[in-house]
TrEMBL record:
Domain SusE outer membrane protein as annotated: residue spans: 24-119
A Gene Ontology term for the protein's cellular component: outer membrane
All copies of domain Outer membrane protein SusF/SusE-like C-terminal, residue ranges: 174-262, 279-378
Naturally occurring in which organism (per UniProt): gut metagenome
Gene Ontology molecular function: any one: starch binding
Protein name: Outer membrane protein SusE
InterPro entries, alphabetized: SusE, SusF/SusE-like_C
Length: 380
């Protein structure tokens, strides 16, 4: 009986190994495609009006990877057949028949026209567009594209193109990043918008050696460095830079009032950075009822360290609930209240573009202590 059991086991084992060998022989082998044809769209010689169209249908032959593969298609657009300059549309497709969004084509073509130096007022216009596809099998774990192949180029000789880019608008705020916060955007400091002055921001900040600024808290290619803005050093900071786009260097690290103005010119936002002395002032009841701006006797003491506190003079009188304690910095050509702020529950709150702030009362002889590195403060 035992002999029959062993023989049966060996027979089953032989079948198992045979099956494995068979599976190996049938495994698909990836091969590099040699042909990939993009078909000429219907009515290619006619006029394509992108503004009044929804989609453009493209069809192609699926590249031969040696087996039925899941292929991803991307669309490239150029103004010249050699594709020396091109844009890749944001949408991708998984079918050899794809409806390409006309608006995406228009945005890409408009971008390319602007790179050629065509002005916005020249639109709408008629142009030739060249299209090709890129097929791939996705990316590996290292981000490398697998099995990519480009199709032939198809021409659309008569494309009516409107100006498809959205208007350029000023950002809501800006952020400063640099050596002082270890170049970590998540720890960057936000500038404060000036009330009733769109495109103007300010910040009292300790500039340590180098910095850049951006309208986003990320390295997205839009950050501004040396040579990418106009810098007015009105406080002896010693500004320099190694090259355009490099970090803005500060020879004399310390506290400054940094004011940035942005102006939309064409498709660009041109920034002017005004670096001033870090003057912070009391105004109103705590000064004995004086409402003059920038009174020297009511200027805060400036700390020598990045984590130090700005300290006000002792209050000459109590600040009641009607007018309260008032603090401001001076922005040229604006009233003091457009750049005021106050301490609430240990935190500095900036008025910015908001309404009048709540009043904080205090007694004569008290002082304000401000830490602009972490936006904390106190009155005592």
């Amino acid at each position: 009986m035992k002999k029959y059991f062993i023989a049966a086991s060996l027979l089953l084992g032989g079948l198992f190994f045979t099956a494995c060998d068979s599976d190996r022989d049938d495994n698909p082998t990836l091969q590099k495609p040699t042909t990939f044809v993009l078909n000429t769209p219907a009515y290619a010689s006619g006029v394509y009006d992108l503004e009044h169209s929804t989609t453009l249908e493209l069809t192609c032959s699926q590249p031969d990877y040696g087996y039925t593969a899941s292929v991803t298609y991307a669309v490239d657009v150029a103004l010249t057949e050699n594709f020396e300059e091109f844009e890749t549309l944001p949408s991708t497709y998984t079918s050899a028949k794809m409806n390409v969004m006309a608006e995406e084509l228009a945005v890409a073509a408009t971008t390319l026209k602007l790179k050629e130096g065509v002005e916005e007022d020249a639109f709408p216009l008629e142009t030739a567009l060249y299209i090709r596809l890129k097929a791939s099998l996705g990316k590996d774990q290292y981000g490398n594209v697998l099995g990519e192949i480009q199709s032939n180029v198809v021409e659309l000789p008569h494309v009516r193109l409107h100006f498809a880019l959205p208007p350029v608008t000023l950002p809501e705020t800006l952020y400063i990043n640099g050596k002082g916060n270890n170049w970590q955007w998540e720890n960057s400091l936000a500038f404060v918008p000036v009330h009733s002055a769109p495109g103007t921001w300010w910040r009292v900040v300790y500039l340590l050696e180098e910095f850049k600024f951006n309208s986003d808290t990320s390295w997205n290619g839009q950050e501004k460095g040396y040579g990418q803005c106009t810098i007015q050093d009105n406080a002896g900071a010693g500004i320099s830079g190694d090259a355009e786009g490099a970090n803005i260097k500060v020879a004399n690290s310390g506290w400054y009032l940094v004011i940035i103005k942005g102006v939309v010119e064409g498709r660009n936002i041109n920034y002017t950075v005004d670096i001033k002395e870090p003057n912070v002032y009391l105004i109103g009841p705590a000064t004995g009822g004086k409402w003059d701006e920038c009174m020297p006797d009511w200027k805060f003491q400036v700390p020598s360290t990045a984590d130090g506190e700005f300290v006000s003079p002792a209050f000459a009188a109590a600040a009641d609930a009607k007018d309260g304690v008032r603090i401001h910095v001076k922005i040229p050509e604006t009233d003091w209240w457009k750049s005021e702020f106050m301490v609430f529950d240990g935190k500095i709150k900036y008025r910015g573009t908001g309404n009048d702030q709540d009043r904080i009362t205090a007694g004569a002889g008290q002082k304000v202590y401000l830490n602009f590195s972490n936006d904390t403060g106190k009155i005592e």
